[in-house]
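Still learning. Show one?

>
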Amino acid sequence: MPQFKENIINYYKETRMLNDFPKIKKTGAISPYGEVTPFYFNGAMYRLGLRDHTGGLDSASDIRALIREYYTGKIIATLGEGCYYYSFYQEGDKAYVLGTERQNGSFCGDTIYIFESEDLVNWKKRKLLERKGWKYYNTSLTKSEDGYVILMEASEGEGEEIGVPFTFFFAKSKDMVNWEFMPTETAFSRNIYNGGPWMKYANGYFYVISVTELPFQRYTNYLYRTKDFLTWEVGKYNPLLSPSLEDRKLSPYACELDSGWQEKIKDMFIASSSDFDCCYDPENKITRMCYLLGNQLGDYYMAEAEIACTVEEFLENNFI
């Protein structure tokens, strides 16, 4: 079973906050729908998001992933029919969207599909992997020198022990076609709540940001890293992006947050910050972040933030 270094506590009386303490600037609410992924592709900023599905499971057939222009909100493509829990990966001149197939009247399933495009408009679909009897939700894909690794959030696993829901499992591949599920002991972590994962390989580590549960039904994002999926370190400056008054202002790039929504978020009870995602914007030399705010009872909206460094610098600075 994975172990935390230093029994999770990673600071002491002598510890000092270095590198000027990572300064994240919150820029406000952007969307009434979750989840949103910012990305920079072929010289422009975009967002991967969801089509409105306020009808719940009864309107599940209408669920799509959307690609929007970042600054205008214009929809340039829809994709991902039959799936949910979309995530984004980019390599070279190709963009990829992962989606978990909806099965048995649920938003989750045991099969993950991948959609590939070179222009963000035309997409090819293929099955990425499946594991019968499992319930997968969010996913995240990254690449190291040794190949690809996918993280899968699960609440049920055939013949596997799921810890405090949810538990993260991993698989690896050399070519993004043939996958090998990593050993059971790499599951992370059965003794704490983990959800809404984001993963990136950088600086020789696999970094994971996920939502964890605090006392009294509060939830917030924590950063971890590992080299071998057996021993994990916890970021010094956790929690990240905890709810604050800044989350209630309106971003200049908000989309579909009408006057009714703007009034609602002024006093919405917010107990949760989750579903982190980010990308580097080279034109403005900032890392753009998106995260979901809500009460874990069905009310939520997306907000964004930024920090003046690369993604790799942001991640590493949380461990200095």
